[in-house]
Every structure is written in C-alpha cells, then in structure tokens.
Model the fold of this input.
Amino acid sequence: MPVYSAPTKDMSFILHDVLNVNNEDIAGYSDLEPDFVSAILNESAKIAENVLAPLNAVGDKEGCRLENGVVRTPTGFKNAFEQMKEGGWTGLDCDPDYGGQGMPFILANAVTEMFSSANMAFSMYQGLTHGAYSAIHAHGSAAQKAQYLPKMVSCEWTGTMNLTEPHCGTDLGLMRTKAIPQEGGSYKITGQKIFISAGEHDLAENIIHLVLAKIEGAPAGIKGVSLFIVPKFMVNDDGSLGQRNSLSVGKIEEKMGIHGNSTCVMNYDEATGFLVGDEHKGMRAMFTMMNEARLGVGVQGYAQAEVAYQNALDYAKDRLQGRDITGTKNPDGPADPLIVHPDVRRNLLDQKSFVEGARAFSLWGAYLIDRAHRNKDKDADGLVSLLTPVIKGFLTDKGFDLCIQAQQIYGGHGYIEEWGMSQFARDARIAMIYEGANGVQALDLVGRKLAQDGGKYVLAFFGLVKSFVSETKGQNEAFDRGFLDPLKKASKDLQGAATYFMQNGMKNPNHALAGSYDFMHLFGHVCLGLVWSKMAKAAHDALENGTDDAAFYETKLETGRYYMARHLPATGMHLARIETGADPVMTLKAANF
Amino acid sequence: MPVYSAPTKDMSFILHDVLNVNNEDIAGYSDLEPDFVSAILNESAKIAENVLAPLNAVGDKEGCRLENGVVRTPTGFKNAFEQMKEGGWTGLDCDPDYGGQGMPFILANAVTEMFSSANMAFSMYQGLTHGAYSAIHAHGSAAQKAQYLPKMVSCEWTGTMNLTEPHCGTDLGLMRTKAIPQEGGSYKITGQKIFISAGEHDLAENIIHLVLAKIEGAPAGIKGVSLFIVPKFMVNDDGSLGQRNSLSVGKIEEKMGIHGNSTCVMNYDEATGFLVGDEHKGMRAMFTMMNEARLGVGVQGYAQAEVAYQNALDYAKDRLQGRDITGTKNPDGPADPLIVHPDVRRNLLDQKSFVEGARAFSLWGAYLIDRAHRNKDKDADGLVSLLTPVIKGFLTDKGFDLCIQAQQIYGGHGYIEEWGMSQFARDARIAMIYEGANGVQALDLVGRKLAQDGGKYVLAFFGLVKSFVSETKGQNEAFDRGFLDPLKKASKDLQGAATYFMQNGMKNPNHALAGSYDFMHLFGHVCLGLVWSKMAKAAHDALENGTDDAAFYETKLETGRYYMARHLPATGMHLARIETGADPVMTLKAANF
Done:
C-alpha cells in the first residue's frame, strides 16, 4: 500500500522563509501568520493522509460505473466527500458572501497539492466545482450567483465544464451544440459533449453543468460561442430542486487513469439552460475557469511526482540489493539498500529537486494571482498570465516523467499494479492533456503571451532574475558558483531564444512556433532555477543566522545545487533546438511522412 | 481500431542500401539477396498485420486468467500461435539440426520488430522460448539438446526464464531457490520465482522452465548459482510426455500493460530439474539468454514507438483542428489537419527520426552478432557487447517517451483506452524495466563494458565514426553541414565524457557511476547520429545515381537532418551533467532525502 505524508514543512518554508507572505502588502495576507498557516496545513494534511490517500487505489481498481443512467463512484468516496464538505475544505478561498472562507488563493493552492497527491481522481470532483464557481462568480448575474454559488461553495452541488465535442477539442470554433432562445429568457440546449470530468456521480444532490453552445444565428467560429448554466435538476425559486433537466450520460469513458473520476459523454436534448454573461462572449467567461484550471493542473503534475517520490524513496531505503562500490554500508544485512547506488540517487534527486522547485514555482504563481486579484495589480496579472502555460505545460510534463522515474526505482514491482506506482504514472498522464494539451500551452506561450503588451511581462521576468542576481552576488562564493552562475547562464539561453523568435518570427511565424515546445521547457527550467536560487538564499540566510533545524536547510541547499547542476544544463539543448528554426520541422511534405 | 503496416521498405533500405548485407563476408549472408529478403519480410508482414495486430487490443482488454491452476490466454491467441508455428516463424534463425531454418539473426531481428509492433504481449510467448532455446543450445548436453530443442524450435513446447525472487531482482546472489541432488543425476528444485513471463498458458503442450537455483553447499552469492531445466511435464525417453512435475502457478500479476502475456509467480515444490552445463556456472549460461533478450527488448522499445507513430500520423492527417498560421491548407474543410501545425510536426518528426534511426542501430547490432557468431569475430563480439546496454537502455527509454508523444497527438482521445494509444505506452513501459532495468544497463555499460580489454571496443567505435567522417567529408557541403558536423560534435561530447570517467573514475568510481545514465543516452545519440549519417549517405548516393523513388530517399535525408538538428543537441546536456561528477549525487545523506 503506497504511503503519503503531506509536505507541510516544505510548504511553510516556501510561504514564510521564501515568500514571506504575512509581510506582503496583499489584502488578506497579513492573516497568514506561521501559526495560522500551520494549523490550516496540518488539518488539511490529516484529511489528505487519513481520508483521501487510503481511497486512491480503491478508486483506481473499482472505477466509476454507469448503471441505468446513474453513476456510482468507488466505495468510500461518498463518505470522504462528506468529510471534505464538513471540514469546509470545499470553499477555502471562495467568497464569504456565498459561504466561502475568503482565504488567499495561495493557501488553497497548497491544500490542492495535498488533495491531488493523496487522491487526484477524487479531488477533481471538488476542483471542477471550484472552476464552475469561479466562472459564475466572475460572469454570472447577481440572481445566478445567489441561486447557485452557496450550494457550490459547500459542494452540496458540484459543477462541470462542458467544452469538448467529438469533432472539436482545441478548436472550439467548430462547436455544434445549439442554444435556442425560449420565452422567459431561458434557452434549449442540444448537443453532445465529451470528456466531461465529474459529469455524473452520486456525491451531490445536483450538478451544475457549464456548457458552451452557439445561439441560433450566432457569428461563425469562436466568436459565436456562449456560456450556459444547465443544471441537472432545475432549481426552484426557494432553492429547492425541481424537475430533472433533459440531459443524460451517454457513457463513461474507460481511461488510462483517474478511474475514480467519472469522465462522461453528456447528451443535452433540449435541456433548459441559462445564459451566463453576454451572448457570444462565452469564451471570455470560459477562460476565467480555464486559467484557474490550468494552474490547478500544473499542481496535479508535481503533486503526483511528490507522492511517487515519497514511495520511491521508501523503497530505495528498504530494498536491499547489491553493495556500495566504495564500501559496504549495511554489513549486517545480505546487501545494501538501493539508495547507496549512485544512479538510484541520481534518479531520486531528479525527483526531489524537481518537486520542491515546482512547488515553489506554483506557490509563487498563486502569490501573483492573489496580487493580481486582491490588489488589482495589472503587472502581476500580466506576469502570471505569461507564466500560466509554463506552470501547466512544464510542470505536468516533468511531473509525469518523474513519476515514470519513481516507478523505475521499483524495478519489476513498479510495473505491478498492487504496488501503486503505475497508478501515479497513469493518473499523472492526463495532466499533460486536459485543460489544453501541452502543445497548445506552448502555442499560447509563444504565440500570444510572449509578445503581450509589447513583451512587457517577459522583460519583467528577466528583470526579476537580474535584480535577484545583482542583490545577492558577491556575498558568498559557493552560492554564486552553485546558483547564480548557472541561473545567469540559463537566463541568457532564454533571452537568446526570445531574441531568435523576435528576429525570425516576424518574417515567418513558424520559426517561432517550431520552437515553442522547447521554449516552454526552457522557460520552465529558468523559473525553477530562479525559485531554487531564492530558496537557497533563504536556506543560506537561515544557516547564517542560526537555526535549530540545520539539517533541513542544508538539505535544501544540497537539493538546490543538484537542480542547478543536473537539470539546468537542459536550457542549452533547448536553445540549440530552437535556433535550428522552422526548416527541419516544416520542409517535409505531409504526404511524405 | 489502431492500424499497423509493417515497414518492410525501410527495413530493405537498411539491409541493402546501407548495410549491403548480401555482399558481406558473413556465413549465410550471401543468401540475403533483395528478392529473398523481400519475400521473407512480406510474408512475416502478413502475419503481423493480419493475424497478430487484430488481437493486440483483445489481449489488453481480456488479459490472462488463472482458473484452477490453468491459465487461459485471450481469445484468438491459440489460433494465432498455431499460425505462427505453421508458418515456421518460431525457428527462423534456429539451428537446422533441430528443425530451425538457420537464417541469419539480422533477418530474425527484422521479423521480431514486426511481431512486437503488432502484438508485443503475444510475441513474448515465442520470444521467451527462443531465449531458453539459446541457453540450452549453448550450454546443454547433446542429450538435452536432442530431447528439448526440436519441440522448442517448433514452439510445440515453449520456454521461460526463472531468475527473480521476491527479495532479489538485480542482485541474484541473494537467491534462495534450492537444488538438492538426487540419485540418477537429477535435482529436486524448491523455491519461488516471480515475474515469470509466459510462465503458464494454454498455447503449448509443455513448458520448459529454465530455473536458476543454488545446489546445496554451493559457494555463497552469485558464484553458487546453477541453471536447471525444469519441465512442466516430464519428458519420456521416446519424447512423449510423462507425469506432471511438481510446480505450479501461485498467481498471475496484474500489470500496467502486456496483459496478453501471463506474468506468473511460479512455485517449485521439489520439482525435478536437470542441470544445464556445469555446477555453479548458471550465471554464464543465463547471460547467453540475457544478452539476446536485451537486444530483443531494445527492439520492443522502438517497435512500440513505430506502431504508435503510425497511428499518430494517421490521426494528424485526418483530424481537422485549427488553421495553418501561414495560410489555410484545407479551404473546403472546416479546419486544417493537425499536421499543418509546427508543434505537431515537431512531435511527429521526433518520433519518425528516432524510430528509423533506432531500427538501423538495432539491425547494425544484429549484423555484429552474426559476424561475432558466424565468423567467430572477437572484435565484432566485443563491440556488440559494448553496444548491447545502449541498445536496450536507450532504445527502450526513448521508445517509451515517443509512445507518450504519439499519445499526445490524440489529445483527450489518447487517454481513452479504446483508441489504443494508451496500450502502446503501457506495453512499452515494461521494456525499460525487464531484462535488467535501464539503470543496470547504464551500470553494465560504464562499470564493465567501457573499460573491457583496455577500452578497446569504445576506441573501435570512435574509429568507426572517424573513418566514416574522413571517407565522406568534402564531397557535398550540405551533407557535411547537416550530418558530419553534428556527428563530429556529438562524438566529441562522448569522448569528453569517456575522458572524464577515465580521469576521475580511478580515484572515485562514483564520479563515473553518477554519470552512467547520462552516458548511456549520450552514447545512444551518437550511435543514432552515426547510423543516420550512413543512411543519409546511402540516400544521397541513390539520388545522385538516379532512382525511381526520389521521394523515399529525399524523405530519408530530411528525416535524418531532423535527427541531427533536433535530437543530437542532447549530447551537450548529457556531457554537462556528467562533468558535474559525483558530488551533486553523493553528498546528501540518505537520512536527509
């Protein structure tokens, strides 16, 4: 049975030692005192470790079943969902006007990681609800908010996002689902939606589907798409549930992973829907959900790598196989533990240094979101908008890769389902695909975000690197060599890539797009290089100032040095690939592939 | 339903245009005229495409079931196995003295790829039998060969390899299975073996288990291990089957993939076994099987990537989504096919250029094996021994990665089991683990093979690169720039890594072992760079000399250019990682992970 122990200590280190949250001038951040944050993290850790984690393998094995139109979730999910609701975990960062606790997003981000590590499929029921909540909160009418949000905050009702159709995924302009206006202001929605996570289940008394559809006579393509609330059960004016809406589950998909979440084909057959926001402005409303969802998916990526790492580490310490080539470490045993072997350590440190860096990057992203939303800070909004595809694409790609590496530590046992490592990898795989496949993230990054507002935000990013380097350099030779030198080199590679795009993308955009995926990874490495340098600085300062927990800070420094030495050299490779331009990619005719 | 079309044309190109097999002075190679080779490849393609491929998804879905000690293989497997046997495909390269067809290994290697692409789990029943055949053929007595080999060549009886026990995988010295000598020369074998592929099934009337065990009083550790034949049914002197041996299936493992192959826990309870070769020399005999098996596993790696690529390509041509940024390509349709998009092409070309390079590398390895075995060429034997861990480790790692990339082309559909892309990835995953996990391959490469005979074989490899470059350079500027320059750069990186190991590994072997995994990948890239340069030269010559099939050769050149431009820059990254040495990997105390 796999283990999971929530990394609350590491989260507190990032929040307090690195981001120094309770001293930041963001509304609500002054409450984030260490003791308060610890209390929240420790309580959510209990739910994650004791309630959700034990159901992870159960969910994988049983999956969801569709019987006579009703979806049954795996054994124990209903009870666990009740505990989530009772603990108030479903509305942590939601608006107090609708029953939420109004805490900063950064705290919700940390809790999301724990729940995802413990049971990714389970945590999606709440995660999708939160996305739907956000869209209604941002774009719904006052009446809609009053009618739907309180029950969604409490997860008495859950939510879904209905975008994809069989013939259109990324290209939502091809959408066929229709909305026909009715007297009284409602619409009849007809069409089929696929890949609807948590589309139908037995955890809540109602499900609020958010559905993209085209109103009759709408403009062609993406500019004619509108967003609708389509409840499973109609909601009466007094809040009680009325009749069943005419929507149904076509089937549950059999997937590679996240079996505990019901991924449904949803059929809308003249279902009653209510317009959210303006006609034909559905994409704007949907993007509110999607950006938040993309950050959440980035968290899923490293959350799976975190739990996979914890198990791989346990195995590497327990499993006796072979002897340390430099001298026996376990003379009383028949062999030494796996962790004595350099290549096993290489593998484990790849994982550990990525996960801790990813966590810091993600929490920094959450900090920027809080600054953007709570302080209406447009610069923070622009920067996090630039970083969102990097957080989603890079963290899920690497997160999956490192689940595979963790599985590898187990040798043959890693391939056997009962050991649980396969599930971490299979579950993590979806994060590279949904909420915009990672190739689409790279396109968003290079095709839209990079040049946004004249490249203002990427320049701001480079400015952050530069000012960090100039503030810290020259104080400690080992720190400069281990962190600042590789960071400068990596940042220079990123600048080289951006320059290449600028100089060549104008005459042919394919010179940029052919390098978009490499750019996303290059950017990701520089981001992790930056946050690792900041963590190392904080650890260094703590050791200089004296601490009771020297081992923690020394380990942090060692792990950071590993990232800089062993992960960051990838930036040179990505730059070299990018600088080959469009020709290697575009020359071959499609017929000759 | 996934498609598969055997790449016979590409195989013929490698065998004839590049390796020029029928003009090589290797016993049996003069028979390998293009027409003859084509006939064999086309016939095996029919079996692969029409018999095996249609059962691939069936095997995944149904899996193998254990009922009252009997294992049932998936629907259709028995019939397909009969067709394999009837066609003579089970003994293609086996000794004619025992009913084999005596063809060169290189031809069997090509056929293995097709069968693996079409149905990896199915082809393992024959693959394991071939491994067991090879061990008995090399180390068994004349009587044992006469008794067992004819039925194994025909696959009337299948074979297995029993190495792993619950507490010992890589470190076979920890083995507990015992062999107690009996009167008459046989042994009683008692112990439990795990991960036994094809351990029990309904495809053959008998199963010949090769089991490693320790004879009572044997030396401790790996030097006390002996190899035994332990038949499921005893074989009478007249070849008929006698009584059931006392061995049984404990259970079938539930695995991430290759569900169609029965992976068994095997219990031996005083089962009758017969010593193969000398007492305590079991590892030597097992290595005969393992080296062959490792090459076969390398083939599985790129074979899965090949079939995954074929399907990803089909999807990329069919699926309409978005528009070409440089101008609509499909004005009559609602959108352009995916293949217009640069990042989709980047992904497809990653796959295509890897698979074709891997195939050439693997066939070159098979050529070296034929030269080593048929001509008793010790240099060829040394070189292929050096390359074996690279073929196994690099081709399976990359093969899996590229299955994941192929799956990504499908977006959400890639995650749904019915589309088949998940199976390719799940099946390919095992190839990184079994027959020596890839970390062990890297250890074998750097810890044993690299310095073998004073580094003679790695120097020979560098000599091959050097002489190819000096023979071909200066004839064509584009060829030099596109192929020879990057090949020289990559080869220099490999030499730099080898030099680093030499200079630092002496004082501390961990300086070498901490870089072993990167070295294996660095070496793999240089090998593919070399074979791609050779393929490009052959394509270039064909175009210069005039050909009816210019598109094929031009595509080959383009694909090769892509590999050199986009894959080879990885060598600099691997070198940089290697040159950080042992410290980043070894400094952190195990307790502080």
Summary: Chain A has a mean pLDDT of 97.
